[in-house]
Design brief:
72% of the residues lie in helices and 0% in strands. The chain is an all-alpha fold and 207 residues long. It has one domain (3-205). Helix 2 (11-38) packs antiparallel against helix 5 (87-115). The chain is globular and about 50 Å long.
Length: 207
């Protein structure tokens, strides 16, 4: 369901979902740039993308898609992988950074939920619940190994040059492939598996 419809149907629910979703996407992108900077590529820092300011990250088309269809994206943080001190290790770490950041946010949201009770905390409880759920969903979605999603670049970091070349050739068409597979619900079982895996990892620390 698009967020525009939710805005008119239930403005409070819109805020409880839209705000955590916005900052979850920003944190995801910020993590890519931060790790890239630590590994030798300052491109994101030079362009002012290491910021929590939404205006630095919002993509017009991605935002419209999110509002209308409930599926969207932010501007990817620019990374020059050629600047990284170790290409393969950098590809894996930088690509994993956004996923790991989302899992960490989900973990701390669930941790705080454990400490809350009902009553005056209801709105905060719902906000944290949506924050955890959204971040788990974002992490699971980005693990899909189809370009340009992070999972494909993590795979490239471990794969042969032939596989890297194949994935690179797919990338210009990747967004259309992903939208088509989402429309056909082909990716649902894979996303559900990744969500189960992420919750399993969190439950090892937060039983």
């Amino acid at each position: 369901m698009g967020l525009i419809k939710l805005l008119f149907d239930n403005p409070i629910a819109f805020l409880l979902i839209a705000v955590p979703l916005l900052y979850s996407i920003i944190i995801h992108e910020l993590a890519h740039g931060w790790v890239a900077d630590k590994m030798g590529d300052p491109t994101a820092r030079w362009l002012g993308r290491l910021s929590l300011n939404p205006l630095k990250h919002l993509d017009l088309m991605g935002t419209l898609m999110l509002l209308i269809f409930g599926f969207g994206w932010a501007k990817p943080v620019p990374v020059n992988f050629g600047n990284l001190r170790d290409f393969r290790k950098g590809l894996i770490f930088v690509s994993s950074a956004g996923i790991v950041a989302n899992i960490i946010v989900a973990f701390f949201s669930l941790l705080v939920l454990r400490l809350l009770s009902s009553g005056p905390w209801d709105m905060l409880y719902l906000g944290l619940y949506y924050m955890a759920r959204i971040n788990i969903m974002l992490a699971a979605f980005n693990l899909i190994p189809i370009p340009p999603l992070d999972g494909s670049k993590i795979l490239m970091g471990f794969a042969s040059q032939k596989v890297q070349y194949t994935l690179a050739r797919i990338e210009p068409y990747g967004l259309f492939i992903i939208i088509g597979l989402l429309w056909l619900r082909v990716l649902d079982p894979l996303i559900a598996f990744f969500q189960w895996l992420i919750l399993g990892i969190i439950s090892l620390i937060l039983p």
